[in-house]
Q: What sequence folds into this?
């Protein structure tokens, strides 16, 4: 279903975008992040045509991000819940929310993600695994990894240019 | 240029996706993250048609994510660098890289983002601003924020369904 337009890009961002770059994927994941959702609820939330939503949900199941469960037999009705693979995308969702709140929420954040119980707001930190320092973009650099070496040089323009120079 | 298909969604993810959900935007930002890039370099890296790349770069400049600088006058040649607004997307890029590395890098990560100097790898942490706890998805909940109250109830299906129940 998704156009695989990034095939020439040996890059984990490009590969991740093949899966989550589809416009509605992250919104479906947003709606299923806290609990399973029924097809009808998702359809109402997203305002998508039923056949379009069906296709996208099926694709997310095929990619291992959602699991489908029959909750009613007559007529058959399904609900969708997130797998661990989908839950591992929560830092992406959380970072997108923080950025959208900062630049595109003139009336204040539409929703607030909080620490359950404590009620504190969420901070996103990049931390160095080795020395424990909290990092900003200025502290980062990129190096070719093992996956870059396994591809032919002519096929890795993305990997080549992203290297820090 | 971008289809504004999320207009009915009062949600910072939806608003952020209006800007960065366009398929090539995050790849352009990836390529400019460490230093300014010339048009020719971006075109070679991304393999996009020149007119398509021109349109997208212009759009990113209009949205305040890139700044254009003339580096040669005859013939005119431009390079593009990231603004603070774009740099604030680095947590999104870093989280996408981590996820892509985990699930879509069978030969290992194509590139490694490291702490400059120290060489340590990068960990993404969600931290509670109030109590300092390191959080997982299980520790989060969502509440309507001030931006949700300012919109009419009938126009906020996304904000409504994302509420934790």
A:
């Amino acid at each position: 279903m998704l156009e695989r337009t990034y095939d020439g890009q040996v890059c984990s961002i490009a590969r991740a975008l093949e899966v989550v770059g589809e416009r509605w994927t992250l919104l479906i994941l947003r709606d299923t992040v806290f609990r399973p959702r029924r097809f009808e609820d998702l359809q109402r939330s997203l305002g998508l045509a039923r056949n379009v939503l069906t296709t996208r949900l099926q694709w997310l199941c095929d990619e291992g991000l959602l699991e489908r469960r029959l909750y009613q037999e007559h007529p058959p009705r399904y609900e969708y819940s997130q797998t661990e693979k989908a839950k591992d995308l929560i830092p992406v969702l959380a970072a997108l929310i923080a950025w959208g709140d900062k630049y595109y929420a003139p009336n204040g954040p539409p929703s607030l993600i909080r620490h359950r119980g404590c009620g504190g707001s969420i901070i996103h930190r990049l931390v160095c695994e080795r020395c424990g320092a909290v990092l900003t973009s200025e502290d980062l650099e990129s190096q070719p990894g093992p996956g870059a070496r396994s591809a032919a040089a002519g096929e890795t323009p993305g990997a080549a240019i992203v290297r820090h120079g």
